[in-house]
Amino acid sequence: MNISDERNLTMLTDFYELTMANGYILNNMADTEVVFDMFFRRVPDKGGYAIFAGLEQLVQYFEGLHFSPEDIRFLREKEMFSDKFLTYLADFEFKCDVWSMKEGTPVFSGEPIVIVRGPALQAQLVETMVLLTINHQSLIATKANRLVRAAEGRAIFEFGSRRAQSYDAAVLGARASFIGGCVGTACVLADQRYGVPAVGTMAHSWVQIFDTEYDAFKAYALAYPDNCTLLVDTYNTLKTGIPNAIRVFDEVLKPIGKRPKGIRIDSGDISYLSKRSREMLDAAGYQDVKIIASNSLDEYIIRELLLQGACVDLFGVGENLITSRTDPVFGGVYKLVAVSDGEKYISRMKVSESPEKITTPGFKTVYRFYNTETGMAEADYVSFFDETVDDRQPITIFDPQAHWKKKVLNRFKAVKIMTPVFEKGKLVYELPTLQEIQQFAKEEMSHIWDEVKRFEYPHSYYVDMSEKLWTEKTVLLSELGNLD
Fold first, then answer.
1. Does the structure show a pLDDT above 50 at 150?
2. pLDDT digit string (tens) for 231-243?
3. Which own/partner contact pairs does 403-410 have at CB distance under 8 Å and 24+ positions apart?
4. Which of 116, 145, 154, 413 has the greatest CB tally within 10 Å of its CB?
């Protein structure tokens, strides 16, 4: 089941995609074969990498593409579109080829992460959904992975449903956060639909509705003796919250042979309160009780708390994760890179006065070079689709922005990291489970150098071009840049 089951998302497109599609029909170009790349220009939070996510929902969108009679009627009433175009939409059948990174793959700016090849009308039409699907989940998965690394082995829960920008963002954000390494979510629908474990205990309102804090804790312990975690900061964490929690543990759970699971602190000086709470719990014989911290956390705060010696076992992160509040735009773009003349692909390139907006032309693929001695990823290598890499021979890579900076790789394994997903509109990729995706992401991240994963001033991971591709880009840039 997916978030779009209750509605047809085919019309979730920018209007200009429809006006261009109609124009392709009128100019007999609807079936001209083209290639589009999706890529991003900048890693969020000035990081060194991103985590690719959202492919499953993109697959579901492609498989469900169709224009209903209501859609056709709506477009006809616009009085802008030709009958020939509306007839085409009424009989629409997705026929594109799609290649993509696998979900959970660490990805880098400037390289294709989704490639769509097919009839111009269709490849253009899917732009908005390709972007919003991959942009959103990749953003949240990347943020989640930063939080998980900051926690240094402690569990991270996604607690942001109430702060998400919509219900879709809440549910799919929980999915993406799990890919990034979170162990659970507060969102029940994400558990029902995707199997992201839903967790949660009580809010401050539970404590406030009872006459006393002790009564609230006692009632909860009786209701959930096997999973008792108490929120201890409603009134005063150290003066009443922890003492009342210990009293309930002693008077309610211990007599029936049950052990409490944890306490949660949601306000105040987390570092100080967690250390004092740990002392009080340990002194009372509850060394096994976990301390959970929440309250507007992000990776920087978590890192600082641990540096200060905070006694926190688990973190719940809400708004700063589900909205990626510190950098809420992933910035992926979808650009035309090649047009077929029936015999070969003719490269297309966007030129801009802003260097970062100059696109890389051509029908391409991406290799990742792994050092055969260390297993670490050394560079990504973007080449024309029909180029091959002989990893039995040394290869010279260079920085495309400073091509005089070169490095020779001698012992490496070249792995194509773009995988076929659709062939002529037919799904050819077996979607993994969400748990498999999370494990894949964890494994792939283990091959990325720690220097690339730094929060501040990370090492720049090389996204190289083949000599042939770099030459093509250089020649095209020279030709197009000299046009009057």
1. yes
2. 999 999 999 999 9
3. 403/470, 407/462, 409/369, 409/371, 409/378, 409/379
4. 145
pLDDT value at residue 1 = 45
| pLDDT at residue 6 tops 70 | no
- Average pLDDT value for residue range 370-374: 97
- Helices H, strands E: what count in the chain? 16, 21
- Asked whether the beta carbons of 438 and 182 are under 8 A apart, the reply is no
183 DSSP 8-state letter: -
Measuring CA to CA, which residue among 468, 463, 474, 462 is closest to residue 384? 468
At 40-54, the pLDDT tens digits run 999 999 999 999 999
Name the burial class of residue 204, with classes exposed (0-12), middle (13-18) and buried (19+) by CB atoms within 10 angstroms of its CB: middle
Q: Which helix (DSSP H) or strand (DSSP E) does residue 434 occupy?
A: helix 434-445
Burial of 142 (0-12, 13-18, 19+ CB in 10 A): buried
CA distances from 243 to 214, 230, 250, 314 (A): 9, 12, 11, 21
Q: Which residues contact 231 (CB under 8 A, 6 or more apart)?
A: 201, 202, 203, 204, 206, 207, 263, 264, 266
What is the C-alpha separation between 20 and 121, in angstroms, rounded?
Answer: 8
Total-model pTM: 0.96
Q: Are 141 and 180 in contact (CB under 8 A)?
A: yes
**Token pair for residue 414?**
């070249």
Please name which of 51, 176, 177 lies closest in space to residue 106, comparing C-alpha atoms. 51
The predicted pLDDT at position 179 comes to 98
* Coil/strand/helix, residue 93: coil
Cβ atoms of 468 and 476 within 8 Å: the answer is no
